[in-house]
């Protein structure tokens, strides 16, 4: 059985592996949200940034990309993703059902937020998110870069996200 990975944030533009196949996909029951304080990759303990996570919500859905993994690389890709995504225990790895845009149904490795974790900050007003993103820098670079890359890749895929578009525009105003 083919291993699939669901990309909704940085995995869209930096999966860290070469997918065998890439298909637009929808995950039910979750929405994409800047609901995780980043203290490693896009911020620090002193000045946290924000990264996207999948926040569970009734009636919600998130459209992103399903990435299939070449069979001989599955163990290596899973190890890489766990090192990258599970750097803190804020994300939980789940295998969840996706509806692919071509009609197929698959199960995919997906990283969702643990709403009980100290890094969880769901429901934060957009203006507050913009202020945090505009000023945070972490081990993988500026938080702004993460926002801009994700927003532009969603746009290229025809998956514009209103909140992310607003945030990108507002953050550009803040940073000048």
UniProtKB/TrEMBL annotation:
Record's keyword terms, sorted: Lyase, Transferase
One cellular component term from this protein's GO annotations in UniProt: cytoplasm
Protein's organism: Roseovarius indicus
E.C. code: 4.3.2.7
PANTHER family tied to this protein: CATION TRANSPORT PROTEIN CHAC-RELATED, GLUTATHIONE-SPECIFIC GAMMA-GLUTAMYLCYCLOTRANSFERASE 2
Gene Ontology process terms (BP): glutathione catabolic process
Upper classification of the organism: Bacteria, Pseudomonadati, Pseudomonadota, Alphaproteobacteria, Rhodobacterales
A GO term for molecular function: glutathione specific gamma-glutamylcyclotransferase activity
Coiled-coil segments on the chain, per record: none
Annotated CDD domains: GGCT_like
Protein name: glutathione-specific gamma-glutamylcyclotransferase
A family per Pfam: ChaC
């Amino acid at each position: 059985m083919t291993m699939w990975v669901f990309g909704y944030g940085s995995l869209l533009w930096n999966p860290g592996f070469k997918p065998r196949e890439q298909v637009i996909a929808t995950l039910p029951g979750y929405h994409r949200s800047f609901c995780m304080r980043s203290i490693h990759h896009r911020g620090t303990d002193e000045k946290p940034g924000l990264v996207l996570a999948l926040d569970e919500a009734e009636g919600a859905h998130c459209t992103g990309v399903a990435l299939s993994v070449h069979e001989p690389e599955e163990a290596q890709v899973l190890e890489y993703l766990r090192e990258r995504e599970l750097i803190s225990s804020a994300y939980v790895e789940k295998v969840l059902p996706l509806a692919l845009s071509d009609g197929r149904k698959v199960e995919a490795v997906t990283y969702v937020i643990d709403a009980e974790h100290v890094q969880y900050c769901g429901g934060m007003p957009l203006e507050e998110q913009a202020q945090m993103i505009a000023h945070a820098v972490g081990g993988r670079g500026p938080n702004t870069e993460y926002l801009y890359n994700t927003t532009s890749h969603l746009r290229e895929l025809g998956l514009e996200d209103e909140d992310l578009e607003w945030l990108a525009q507002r953050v550009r105003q803040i940073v000048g």
